[in-house]
């Protein structure tokens, strides 16, 4: 009990769980009792009967050792160290227990002069350990992916184990269930799902370079992301984020850059990236798709051949046009909201995107940036001609206009309202001078777009550099001319609906510049504050949310209006073919409305087309049943 072979004497360093085995796996002389028991079993020829029990006991203690030493520890490789421990401590015990005359517990001697049965035991123990380690890491794989690249050692251990155990099917099932349970939930933000998916792409590419595991696991992630309406916007936001814009950097540097390819149509051969970029060395190393590859999966072969994360993200929708259009919309919003015309960041992002999507796809974005640079030059010239800020009067201002090329920019809102007289005068002067400089071109103003900077003065102080939208500024200027307004009177004065006025009043109500009171009849009346107020922060946030929802709704209405040109194409298809699913309609529109010259052609995503078709259903022009669209009233 007090010898060096006891658990107390060993201190637990060499063991792997269990007091009895921890006492024996020490590397010293074989205990007398163990040798006597082994000899007695061999004498009775019962040793083959005992081997099953010995094997089960060893596996149980190896499993316990693995949990104690390796569970949840991803920062270092453990496989080789644990296999060495098996050779140094477990294998001598097996030799003493099952072989006669095995008095020396030296792993080196055993490995050099091991008998055939002992070699089989060693192989069995090592395989069982690698199988157990792989199973444990597969159960922890979601956490490993979230921690990647810090968890690279654990991923490398799993890769080494899979080379022997081939548990790829367990990865697909286990990780798929973990994704469904922990990630693909309505409560998860889209950008969070994308962050995990991007990390998963990089990690699984390291785990299985063939791409088969990634393709099988990511199928459900791609399908889920495709259903979310803001996925494209979030991907483009991620691409243009300075902290994660390395996604735009091509694999292999500039010389090896490859343009992201369009997904092949059903039944067509997907383009090979090595062939596309003319890499003859890589082409000579070509190998056929593995027989286990599921070619029928969404974007399967193309995603496996995709060289980097961006190309795989494009495969979610199968068309780079979807991402280019979203980038064009976001670029338009940023350029129109910027008062400084500083486009350095946008130019950099555009140049990186051109490397990946090609110059032709982004030619419209290049024209947009050229428009902004030209607008800066024209505005400076006109301002110098006027001598800076014009003098006095209501709405005296310095106009700084962004002049856009209508054919290259996304559709812009056409909302109008009654501008202050001083602002209209300045706009007329600017327009006249522009016509003089750029004849015969003329300006068509979009008064609802842009940014206004105001200085708001109260009897007890002033607030400078208040930025707002033109309509919001116009409302505040009305209160500068008349202190008290009823909602209906203010809406009539501006020529817009009362609900639009109320939404745009919220910014001044929350800041305390305007207050809401009740008149004698109990109706709502708004009046200008006589002193600086402190707005309610929660109301301010709610107002911003409502404004954001209104902008999103307006953008959706504009997109449907743009797609009205395809309505007759859809009606013609359904007249001839009776009923079609959205995928067939999408493919046929791409075929019948190609891009040519300055016309972009049909460049909508399948999700945008589906929303347009459902809009036609709401208008009673189409019917939708069992995934098929048909003309309303035709049976």
Element layout with pairings:
Blueprint: H1 7-10, H2 19-24, H3 32-43, H4 47-70, H5 79-98, H6 107-112, H7 116-139, H8 141-147, H9 152-165, H10 168-182, H11 190-207, H12 212-227, H13 231-239, H14 273-276, H15 280-284, H16 300-305, H17 309-314, H18 320-337, H19 344-357, H20 363-386, H21 421-437, E1 452-458, E2 461-468, H22 470-481, E3 484-486, H23 487-494, H24 498-511, E4 514-518, E5 524-528, H25 537-562, H26 567-577, E6 579-580, H27 582-592, H28 606-618, E7 622-625, E8 628-631
Antiparallel strand pairs: 1-2, 3-5, 4-5, 6-8, 7-8
Helix pairs in contact: 4-7, 5-7, 7-9, 10-12, 11-12, 13-18, 18-20, 22-24, 23-24, 24-25
Description:
The protein has 635 residues and is mostly helical. 57% of the residues lie in helices and 6% in strands. It has 28 helices and 8 strands. The protein has helices spanning 7-10, 19-24, 32-43, 47-70, 79-98, 107-112, 116-139, 141-147, 152-165, 168-182, 190-207, 212-227, 231-239, 273-276, 280-284, 300-305, 309-314, 320-337, 344-357, 363-386, 421-437, 470-481, 487-494, 498-511, 537-562, 567-577, 582-592, 606-618, and strands at 452-458, 461-468, 484-486, 514-518, 524-528, 579-580, 622-625, 628-631. The strands form 3 sheets. It has a 3-stranded antiparallel sheet with strand order 3-5-4. The protein has a 3-stranded antiparallel sheet with strand order 6-8-7. A two-stranded antiparallel sheet has the order 1-2. Helix 7 packs across helix 9. The radius of gyration is 35 Å and the shape is elongated. Mean pLDDT is 75; it is low at 1-30, 101-105, 252-258, 263-269, 291-300, 389-397 and 534-546.
